[in-house]
Amino acid sequence: MRTQVVIVATLLLNAVLFVANLSIALLSGSRTVLAQAIYSVTDLIGSGLLLWGLHVSRRPADYNYPFGRGKERFFWAFVSILITFSVAGVIALVTGFEQAISPAPVSHIGVGLIVLGASLAVSVGGIWITLRELRFARTSLQALLESANQGLKSIFYQDLVTIAGCVVAFGGLLVVYRTQLYWVDGITAAIEGILLVATGFILTAESREFLIGRALDPQVARALLGLIEADPRVARVRSLQSMLLGPDDALLALRLNFHDGMTTDQIETAIDEITLTLKGSYPVLRHIIIEPES
Fold it and tell me: What pTM did the predictor assign?
């Protein structure tokens, strides 16, 4: 999947949303629209961090990072989630409560509704871009959500939360327009903040296991075990350990018993062929270490 295409598209879309929402928020005084502007700018920063993480993760391996820097994508996705959801959510909550406690007049509500409608359309467009890239990569949405690609998952959830936030904001501004109850504007902004914080908690908890060093999915591990045991030269698999080094980069460490009577050259040939078989079947396995045992 072309991760960079999705991230760059998200950057451009959020830049447009930020300018539009901030302009109308300053014009109208609506905390609801301001909450959308805050979310747009943090989303913009978050997308920039994801793009940076993608860039630095491609640096070649060296002495200090012998297995490469694939985990950079996990780290910067984690930072992006914190900024995009948690920071934006708290700021939206604070500004919303301020408006609810000490309501200030809200003007130009019609223009605000138009901007929210545009934000909704742009977010739907962002989801369409993600789904298009999934089709291009011949993978499913479920596969993405179950994968280790925290960056793309956070972008997808960003668009979903934006859509939900736009619906809530649209309803809140309509109530303000009809009733002139300006405290509703604050409550609406606070609800948007709660949506952001809740989503941030979920994604942050999920990021933890990848930063610590999560193993490959058990189903993948069983399939790898089946491939290895099918080799007639392998007597027993004594140990199979794995760790994700990035969304598309994994380390596999094996301890194998080969049948008695094999020469050193035959064992070396078997190791090379098993390595090629595993990498051919699962390209995510970029680092394979096989330790033979008697």
Answer: 0.77
